[in-house]
């Protein structure tokens, strides 16, 4: 198709649209392939101007860039012009014809070369052309190929395009105009001097930046520390800046620098003098320092964990805080191990917790820390809270005097070790005195330590301490001894007991000691929870022991009497709830009495799970309890008689009192009271002793009332007689109590004698009731019971031989007794699990009562 091609009208009409589009696409292809270097250079130059790069560098750099860009632009234009060729119509037809099957355009334009005179050949040719022309109706424009990756392998055209898009988004057309001021003719070509300014607040204020060109002249509030940025465009000196907010000295006539930055440190004015200039009155908002204060009472848990609430505020938010604790030496009771000057010790500094999320301009947080192991624990200290903001300003609360919270130890030996540990950390020169004191208090280890291992650990600590003291104790040795003493005290306080009964006893003693020492509500609540856990553990241990005894003595376990005193888990929980309720109401005396009743009941009770071979029956337990009550009543009567003698012969009793100073603490509570009277304290002190006797008499009467309610043998003549006798004893005790409160010792002694006589009579009647009950039980076992009159807990009739259960052979071929023991052991195990539902526990207890 070198020569021009003339299309028949019918063919041109069909191909006119696709042919034009194909040719336009070919023009676009050749423009892109020829001029992509040109528009890439132009895009880079325009982007640099819009971003204002010419204002950030020296003029020489700008001229150097122009010297590079102009030749590059000229070369790119010449290269593109030389490569560009306008596509012809024939070329467009050839591209369009190549995209269709069979080249229909070329076929429609061809003529038959041979056989034109042959009619058959001519008919075939015309039919072929007709088919090709039909295909022309489906002609479509050819899409242009604008890819130039082969000519631009590094994609420089995309880099230029990205720079232009960035300039459009973040640049300004005004900055392009500033280039007109460059060069000798710039003054005439530029539209005039221009300026830009920004006010950027400190980042921690979270305030937005202000574009000063958008702010009219007038007042403007600015935070302290804001940064003012000014840029001058045009002739140097056409615009002058005057300001009084930075505190920096200004040259005469103002600052004419084209780039200026300064920080606002005070209120003042900012003026731009010149064409388009403005004046602002900047009012600086000062950044106030943060504040902090304690927000609530300092609390301490049983473990010694201190809880210190505090509140902090700041204009823009607090970033950090510290609690500094220092020893208040002037407030320390300088006695015993604290007589010497303390060793130098750095103040305690603890970082204050900050809110993880949210606003920190005003918040309340709680510092939780355990200072129990610190030498200053439970000593007077001063605590100072301080906070800091992002501007490095600090705020400090007034120092507060307080006692540094620490763990309290209720075990006497543990408390003594902790006290001497503090003396060791106070000054290592106390080591010799500490050894003497601890050896003295542990003189009789059998009465103090529950395990010989504990005593041996204490002796090891003392030997090491004395050895270190003889050779000069180092800091590491001091810390090592303090750690060993702390561990031993924890072991004595918490106990490492395998016996759940001992743990229960320890929990009761610690709760009682805490109530006597006025412990905090939180400490008492934690000790009460410990008592509940110890009780549950004790019940589980009883069930485990019962199962173990059943495996060792199966015959006796199957045939033992199960009618002993029982205590359900619900009864224990109800009693402990009552103790906690009394403590919350502040009735500590009643709570102490209820705790003592719980302790005695736990000691005397025999739950079904724990009954085994060799255990006492409920009647025997009641006899022992009454015997103990009788002994205590005899001791109380003897004390009242001694007090009565003291009223008539104080000198003789005083000598006896002096001889009793070395007796045990239990004897000091009895005879030592007479000793106090023997020293001449008869007035108000004597009345106090009688009131103490009256209280002891009341406690004894309450105990007798409990024993009378739990006494077995109800329904028998002997059992009723025993209860009646104990009732008379209780009445006589009440009369003795009233007489003691009225300071009538003679009447009290008479009433106490009547109570003891009634107690002896009640014990005799109880013994007879127990003997009769034992005889009846043996006769019942010999005679058996009538079949059908008893039913097992599942409602089945008794067998014909009088045994509980069905006569049907339930275990064919198996060991019946072994299976029965396994079932009984499983019932005992489940009944000892306090977490089971109450209905299930009651059902299991009914099963155990039956079997």
Mean pLDDT: 76
Q: Fraction of residues in helices?
A: 40-55%
What form results from the Cα inertia axes? elongated
Number of strands: 17
- Percent strand equals 5-15%
- How would a crystallographer describe the biggest sheet? 5 strands, antiparallel
Describe, in plain words, how this protein is organized in 3D:
This protein is α+β, with helices and mostly antiparallel strands. Helices cover 53% and strands 12% of the residues. The chain contains 25 helices and 17 strands. It starts with 8 loop residues before the first helix and ends with a helix.
Offer a few descriptive terms.
alpha+beta; 851 residues; elongated; four-stranded antiparallel sheet; 25 helices
Short description:
With about 850 residues, the protein is of the alpha+beta class.
Question: What is the element layout, followed by pairings?
Answer:
Elements: H1 9-50, H2 59-83, H3 89-98, H4 104-109, H5 119-136, H6 156-170, H7 173-177, H8 186-189, E1 194-200, E2 210-211, E3 218-223, E4 227-233, E5 240-243, E6 259-263, E7 268-273, E8 279-285, E9 291-294, E10 299-300, E11 305-313, E12 318-327, E13 348-351, E14 362-370, E15 380-389, E16 394-396, E17 400-403, H9 412-426, H10 431-441, H11 452-471, H12 475-494, H13 500-516, H14 521-552, H15 554-559, H16 569-584, H17 588-604, H18 618-648, H19 650-659, H20 665-678, H21 684-709, H22 717-741, H23 745-783, H24 816-831, H25 838-850
Parallel strand pairs: 3-8
Antiparallel strand pairs: 1-2, 1-4, 4-6, 5-7, 7-8, 9-11, 10-11, 11-14, 12-13, 12-15, 15-16, 15-17
Helix pairs in contact: 1-2, 1-3, 1-6, 9-10, 9-12, 10-11, 11-12, 13-14, 13-17, 14-16, 14-24, 16-17, 18-19, 18-20, 18-21, 18-23, 19-20, 21-22, 22-23, 24-25
């Amino acid at each position: 198709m070198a020569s021009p091609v003339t299309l028949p009208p019918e063919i041109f009409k069909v191909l006119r649209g696709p042919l034009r589009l194909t040719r336009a696409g070919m023009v676009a292809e050749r423009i892109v392939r020829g001029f992509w270097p040109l528009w890439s250079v132009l895009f880079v130059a325009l982007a640099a101007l819009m971003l204002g790069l010419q204002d950030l560098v020296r003029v020489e750099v700008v001229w150097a860039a122009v010297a590079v860009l102009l030749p590059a632009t000229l070369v790119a234009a010449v290269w593109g012009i030389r490569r560009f060729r306008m596509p012809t119509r024939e070329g467009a037809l050839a591209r369009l014809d190549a995209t269709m099957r069979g080249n229909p355009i070329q076929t429609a334009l061809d003529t038959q070369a041979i056989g034109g005179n042959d009619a058959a050949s001519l008919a075939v040719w015309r039919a072929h052309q007709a088919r090709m022309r039909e295909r022309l109706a489906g002609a479509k424009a050819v899409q242009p190929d604008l890819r130039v990756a082969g000519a631009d392998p590094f994609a420089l055209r995309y880099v230029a395009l990205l720079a232009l898009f960035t300039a459009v988004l973040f640049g300004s057309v005004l900055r392009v105009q500033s280039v007109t001021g460059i060069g000798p003719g710039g003054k005439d070509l530029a539209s005039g001097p221009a300026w830009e300014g920004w006010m950027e607040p400190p980042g921690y204020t979270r305030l937005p930046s202000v574009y000063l060109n958008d702010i009219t002249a007038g007042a403007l509030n600015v935070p302290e520390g804001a940064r003012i940025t000014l840029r001058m465009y045009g002739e140097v000196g056409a615009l002058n800046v005057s300001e009084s907010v930075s505190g920096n000295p200004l040259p005469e006539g103002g600052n004419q620098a084209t780039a200026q930055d300064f920080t606002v440190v005070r209120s003042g004015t900012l003026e731009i003098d010149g064409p388009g200039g403005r004046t602002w009155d900047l009012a600086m908002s000062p950044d106030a320092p943060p504040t902090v204060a304690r927000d609530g009472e300092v609390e301490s848990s049983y473990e010694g964990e201190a809880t210190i609430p505090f509140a902090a505020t700041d204009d823009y938010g607090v970033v950090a805080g510290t609690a500094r604790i220092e020893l208040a030496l002037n407030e320390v009771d300088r006695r015993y191990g604290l007589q010497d000057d303390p060793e130098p010790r750095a103040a305690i500094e603890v970082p204050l917790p900050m809110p993880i999320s949210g606003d920190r301009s005003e918040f309340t947080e709680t510092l939780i820390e355990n200072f129990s192991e610190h030498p200053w624990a439970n000593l007077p200290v001063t605590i100072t809270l301080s906070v800091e903001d992002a501007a490095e300003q600090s705020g400090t609360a007034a120092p507060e005097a307080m006692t540094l919270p620490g763990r309290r130890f209720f075990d006497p030996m543990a408390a003594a070790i902790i006290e001497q540990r503090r003396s060791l950390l106070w000054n290592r020169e106390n080591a010799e005195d500490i050894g003497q004191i601890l050896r003295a208090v542990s003189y009789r280890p059998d009465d103090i330590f529950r395990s010989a291992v504990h005593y041996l650990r204490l002796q090891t600590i003392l030997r090491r301490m004395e050895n270190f003291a003889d050779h000069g104790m180092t800091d590491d040795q001091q810390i090592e001894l303090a750690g060993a003493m702390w561990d031993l005290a924890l072991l004595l306080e918490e106990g490492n007991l395998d016996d759940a009964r001992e743990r229960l006893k320890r929990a009761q003693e610690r709760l009682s000691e805490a109530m006597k020492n006025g412990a905090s509500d939180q400490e008492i609540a934690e000790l009460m929870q410990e008592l509940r856990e110890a009780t549950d553990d004790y019940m589980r241990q009883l069930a485990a022991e019962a199962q173990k005894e059943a495996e060792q003595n199966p015959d006796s376990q199957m045939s033992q009497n199960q009618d002993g005193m029982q205590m359900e888990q619900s009864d224990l929980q109800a009693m402990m709830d009552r103790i906690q309720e009394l403590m919350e109401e502040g009735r500590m005396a009643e709570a102490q009495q209820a705790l003592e009743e719980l302790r005695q009941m736990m000691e005397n009770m025999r739950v079904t799970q724990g009954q085994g071979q060799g255990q006492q029956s409920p009647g025997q337990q009641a006899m022992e309890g009454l015997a103990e009550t009788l002994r205590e009543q005899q001791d109380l009567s003897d004390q009242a008689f001694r007090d009565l003698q003291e009223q008539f012969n104080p000198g003789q009793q005083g000598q006896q009192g002096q001889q009793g100073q070395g007796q045990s603490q239990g004897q000091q509570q009895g005879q030592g009271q007479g000793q106090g009277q023997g020293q001449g304290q008869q007035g108000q002190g004597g009345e106090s002793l009688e009131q103490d006797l009256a209280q002891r008499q009341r406690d004894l009467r309450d105990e007798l009332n409990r024993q009378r309610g739990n006494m077995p043998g109800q329904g028998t003549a002997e059992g009723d007689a025993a209860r009646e006798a104990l009732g008379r004893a209780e009445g006589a005790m009440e009369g003795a109590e009233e007489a003691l409160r009225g300071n009538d010792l003679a009447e009290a002694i008479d009433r106490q004698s009547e109570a003891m006589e009634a107690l002896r009579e009640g014990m005799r009647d109880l013994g007879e009731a127990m003997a009769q009950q034992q005889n009846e039980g043996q006769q019942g076992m010999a005679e058996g019971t009538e079949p059908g009159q008893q039913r097992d807990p599942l409602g089945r009739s008794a067998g014909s031989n009088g045994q509980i259960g069905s006569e049907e052979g339930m275990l064919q071929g198996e060991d019946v007794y072994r299976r029965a023991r396994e079932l009984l052991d499983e019932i005992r195990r489940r009944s000892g699990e306090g977490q089971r539902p109450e209905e299930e526990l009651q059902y299991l207890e009914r099963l155990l009562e039956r079997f």
